[in-house]
Write a structure and sequence with these properties.
Blueprint lengths: L4 H9 L12 H4 L8 H19 L13 E3 L17 E3 L13 H10 L4 H78 L2 E5 L9 H12 L5 H6 L8 E6 L13 E5 L2 H9 L9 E4 L3 H16 L16 E4 L2 E4 L2 E3 L18 E3 L3 E4 L11 E6 L2 E5 H12 L3 H8 L4 H8 L7 H22 L1 H9 L5 E4 L28 H14 L17
Parallel strand pairs: 11-14
Antiparallel strand pairs: 1-2, 3-5, 3-6, 4-5, 7-8, 8-9, 10-11, 12-13
Helix pairs in contact: 10-11, 10-12, 10-13, 11-12, 13-14, 13-15
């Protein structure tokens, strides 16, 4: 039987016409083996053609002549036709001279037979479906395992976060307790220091002469004591002008270029005489001032809180109590209103209506300027904070400490850290070794931003005042000779107009940035040349 060479060749060589079994576990359960798939069969035929081309080709002759002739195994090629349903019976005949023969192996014949088996497609689809089900179950199991593991890790992280929050809260409580203990220890030390100063008075205004002796100083003081005319004082101490001293001396060293005379410190033997002199000091000359010798902490607090006494004169707390004593007093750095005591640490708890900052701030519709110990924006305002693992009571102390560390003067930095008041911090800063003004001018804005942010973050009163009392005004410090300020004094009315300012200053700019971040308000117009209708 003669075979249609062209159709048979196409059916064998064209892989698209062959069913494609899938690589499944059918080697054990399916009828389709893995070893002879249509793709493998096609590659086998292609490789065989290449081998024939390589061995049988001669110059000038094609390696694969056309056409192929195939014959059946059970009849002559010219009498029997090809049975299309029985491809396994088809084998190629010996080609004529000049032709290349291609025989089909037994394995290839078995593959063709299996491909022609009825229902093999349904079995293949069933096998694929089973395999997909197995794969889907495996994917679901893995997804469930991964999800469980993720949830477990999330729970562990959440537990760690909770522990950190608890630890942070405990640390905050510990810091508050340590801060209170430190304040208490400072008070105890101040009391001890005050006990050693309780017999001493400080006289200011006495003209100074080079080479003066103790007798000269005693004569100056005795001259003033003789002028006391307070009847109550004279009744209790009739010989007050003959008060006896332990010692009398000038405070500090004499300097040829000093602009004002040094204070005179006099320690009296009798504490009652010392108190009597304070009670009758109004009779002294106008240029002579007398004050008690207080510890630096008390002196700073007294200087800051004493103006509040005058501020209370126009409030409901003016006048005297039922015992005939003033309702508001300030003694040794402690402000007392009726029976309640206030210090710099709790000044924000003053009764409603007493705005302690009112004398240290001036403002208009567009701007706000400050200067003084009781201004919440002042670097001298009591605002304790922890920065760079150190405890500071004032922003001024923190700034000067960072300055000393920046230039490598650890000795001065340590002295600043243990200073008694911000004025001492300022004085010590002039003694920093290796100080370079140019380098400090470059670093100052960054230091200012770090310190003032710490001050606002760790002091609720300052933060609340900044966000509720300043609106969206331009902020600036009022000082004449400071690069951190606007260049005008607080009492100068020209300061109420921005066009008179020299600059805004680091402090004002930093506070405005922090306010903008906290409230979401935009930065105000910072053009100093802008004309506006600002009225005091």
């Amino acid at each position: 039987m003669e075979v249609d060479e062209e159709n048979y060749t196409d059916s064998v060589m064209n892989r698209d016409n062959l069913p494609k079994p899938v690589n499944t576990p059918a080697k054990q359960a399916s009828h389709i083996p893995f070893s002879l798939t249509p793709s493998v069969l096609t590659k086998t035929l292609e490789n065989r053609i290449k081998d024939v081309e390589a061995t049988a080709a001669t110059p000038g002759q094609s390696a694969i002549p056309k056409p192929f002739q195939f014959v059946s195994t059970d009849s002559a090629p010219d009498k029997r036709k090809r049975d299309e349903d029985s491809p396994e019976n088809i084998v190629p005949t010996h080609p004529p001279k000049g032709h290349v023969s291609m025989a089909i192996t037994d394995e290839e014949r078995a593959e063709f037979k299996r491909l022609d088996t009825p229902g093999w497609g349904e079995k293949l689809l069933e096998s694929l479906t089973t395999r997909m089900s197995v794969l889907q179950a495996s994917i679901d199991t893995k997804c469930s395992t991964v999800k469980t593991e993720c949830f477990r890790k999330i729970e562990n992280v959440q537990e760690q976060v909770d522990q950190v929050e608890i630890q942070t809260h405990e640390n905050t409580i510990d810091i508050s307790i340590m801060r209170e203990q430190l304040e208490e220890q400072s008070k105890i030390l101040a009391r001890v220091d005050a006990n050693g100063r309780c017999h001493t008075l400080i006289f200011s205004g006495f003209k100074e002469k080079k080479g003066e002796t103790k007798s000269d100083l005693v004569a100056l003081i005795t001259t003033q004591l003789a002028k006391i005319n307070n009847e109550e004082v004279l009744k209790e101490h009739p010989n007050i002008k003959d008060a006896k001293f332990y010692h009398v001396h000038r405070d500090g060293r004499w300097k040829p270029d000093q602009k004002r005379p040094r204070d005179v410190k006099a320690t009296f033997k009798d504490y009652e005489e010392r108190s009597a002199i304070l009670a009758g000091k109004k009779a002294f000359d106008a240029n002579i001032y007398v004050n008690a010798d207080l510890p630096p902490e008390w002196s700073y607090a007294q200087r800051a809180l004493k103006p509040i006494v005058k501020l209370c004169e126009g409030t409901q707390y003016a006048g005297k109590n039922k015992f005939g004593k003033p309702r508001v007093t300030c003694i040794a750095g402690v402000l007392k209103i009726d029976t309640k005591k206030y210090g710099l640490h709790n000044i924000d708890t003053l009764p409603e209506g007493i705005n302690f900052w009112s004398n240290n701030i001036r403002s208009t519709l567009y701007l706000l300027v400050w200067f003084g110990l009781l201004s919440p924006f002042s670097n001298f305002f009591y605002s304790p904070m922890i920065l760079r693992k150190k405890y500071f009571k004032w922003a001024e102390q923190c700034i000067q400490y960072i300055k000393a560390i920046m230039f490598g003067d650890e000795f001065t930095a340590r002295r600043i850290l243990f200073a008694k008041d911000p004025y001492e911090c300022k004085r010590l800063a002039y003694k920093i070794k290796g100080f370079d003004q140019g380098e400090w001018d470059k670093a100052a804005p960054g230091v200012c931003d770090e310190v003032l942010r710490g001050k606002v973050d760790q002091n609720e009163f300052v933060r609340k005042f900044l966000t509720t009392q300043t609106g969206n005004k331009v902020l600036a410090e009022a000082a004449v000779e400071s690069k951190w300020a606007c260049g005008l004094a607080l009492h100068d009315d020209n300061i109420l107009h921005r066009r008179n300012w020299l600059r805004i200053g680091h402090g004002g700019l930093t506070f405005m940035k922090i306010r903008s971040e906290l409230t979401g308000l935009p930065m105000p117009d910072l053009d100093l040349e802008a004309s506006d209708d600002e009225l005091p």
